[in-house]
Amino acid sequence: MATSNWAIDASHSEIQFKVKHLVITTVTGNFKEFSGSVEAGDSFENATISFEANVNSIDTNSEQRDGHLKSADFFDAEQFSTLSFTSTEFTKKSDDEFSLTGNLTMKGTTLPVTLAVEYGGTATDPWGNVKAGFELTGKINRKDFGLSWNAITEAGSALVSEEVKLIANIQLVKQA
Q1: Considering just the CA atoms, what is the radius of gyration of the chain in Å?
Q2: Cα–Cα–Cα angle for 107, 10, 63, nearest 5°?
Q3: How many other CB atoms are there within 10 angstroms of residue 97's CB atom?
């Protein structure tokens, strides 16, 4: 089976995370700088996927919070400036659903994670570039990766949830 190389089209992609704050609202953040590649056949089944994000590009719409997230309390961006993902399995579940398993590395800790993937389709843009779209979703526990800072409110609940929802909308562009 012939394979093609694809790269993330960063201008048409987004990498987000969502975390409960005070257990009553959700704060959304994203990484502004990231890259990735995919090696796959036409069906994308058994694709090989790699991804990297610059921790210093984190944006939660609050400079103070972003600075705290970059500190040793959370990502420790000075020592661990990138987070990365390398696939170990990409399994087709139906025409437009896949399961993606791989190793996620954050703050020096590497653990397996599994994400649900929805394939949006493939299209050719007006300039002849072949594009493919995917939405990835999943959850991790931030404490598993050493992002363990928290505070307790007067009512006894955690300031920041341990569960982090991951959402990525990815557009790939086929390489020549």
Answers
A1: 17
A2: 55
A3: 12
